[in-house]
Amino acid sequence: MAVPKKKIPDSAWNTATFLLTKQPEDFADGHRVKIAIVGSGYTGVAVGIAILFKRLASELVFIDMNEELAKAEAEDISHAAAFLGNPRIIGTKDCSLARDATVCVITVGDKATNGQDSSTVLQNNLNIFREVIPNVCKYAPNSVLLIITAPVDILSYAAMKLSGFPPHRVVGLGTFLDSCRFQYFIAQKLGISAKAVQASIICENGPTSVPIWSAVTVMGIKLKDINKDIGTKADPESWGELHNKVIDCDSDLISRKGYRCWGTGICAAEVVDAIVRNTCICITLSTYLKGCRHGLEKDVYMSLPCIIGRNGIQTLLRHPYTPEEQEQTEASCRAIYETQKSNVNGLE
């Protein structure tokens, strides 16, 4: 009896072709949401983790001149990607991999540390932006830029100039985290959940920021109706100290742990969520003001209550500030412009 010959596998045969009737290269790859994060330091990774936990990206790209660091961070997260919606996570130094990104988050740059000269940090970061922003925007011309790097107001203005993007598609994280901290400290003082508190800080992301005490409410109840001097020097309860705590937060955290990133990452992910899902939430973000309506007829970036959605900043909210808040707003706007004038004006 003849022994049947053993069938020789096709030369293209392998485990994948045997297991799968259709190969990965044939899978539909449409409707992917790509988010690019420029910078893979503490802040960039915190932003990436927060985005992935919200399952906003089917593809996340870390871009960093230190390519090995970017690849290592991407691989570290990828090992548990099965629990994050199985996104594709890439680390690279190649800006072309930002192609077709929905949002490009810019975290790259020197970080201000206690005692460091702020003008030096600004100049270093401007030099980085001159190289990074045009390269990223060349490959993602329809994206929204979200600027995290400090000083965020000045660098958002620089990014708008360098990218050539319309201003509504260049957004700074601004005082969003400041407002969250303000809300948190008020809730702590009252002994209630921060979710019950509505509170905002506007203008500069820095020492001249302005707390809007006239609009602080708990479930719609204005605290100013209870304590008319709230937040002022005449306030017997010293609520104004909470704003000082907000201003000192970054330096305090840096002195205690060497860096701060998680609050920034979570807030940045909330902005990305608003853009990707077009949720049109209202938060305080750094936005472009042409011929500033707040008392200084100059173009600046500063934080105001904004509606943000798929196209970036959709519109601003008009708020009836008190005369004191209006005066503080004008002073903050002037402080931003003075720094901008000596460092950024004329930048293209």
Mind explaining what this structure looks like?
The structure is a single chain. The protein is α/β, with parallel strands linked by helices and 348 residues long. The chain has 2 domains: 34-110 and 120-172, NAD(P)-binding Rossmann-like Domain (Rossmann fold, 3-Layer(aba) Sandwich), CATH 3.40.50.720; 175-345, Alpha-Beta Complex (L-2-Hydroxyisocaproate Dehydrogenase, Chain A, domain 2). It has 10 helices and 14 strands. The strands form 4 sheets. The protein has a 6-stranded parallel sheet with strand order 3-2-1-4-5-6, with helices on both faces. Helix 2 (42-53) links the parallel strand 1 (34-38) and strand 2 (59-63). The longest helix has 22 residues, at 118-139. The mean pLDDT is 91. One of its GO terms (molecular function) is L-lactate dehydrogenase (NAD+) activity.
* CATH level 1 name of the largest domain: Alpha Beta
Q: Give the C-alpha Rg.
A: 24 Å
Gap from first CA to last CA: 86 Å
- Kindly state the number of beta strands: 14
Strand order, sheet with most strands: 3-2-1-4-5-6
Query: H/E element string?
Result: HEHEHEEHEHEHEEEEEHHHEEEH
Oligomer: single chain
Structural class: alpha/beta
CATH fold assignment of the largest domain: L-2-Hydroxyisocaproate Dehydrogenase, Chain A, domain 2
Please tell me the total number of domains: 2
Uncertain residue ranges: none
Q: What is the mean pLDDT?
A: 91
The fourth-level CATH homologous superfamily of the largest domain is Lactate dehydrogenase/glycoside hydrolase, family 4, C-terminal
How would you describe the shape? globular
Share of β-strand residues: 15-25%
Helix content: 25-40%
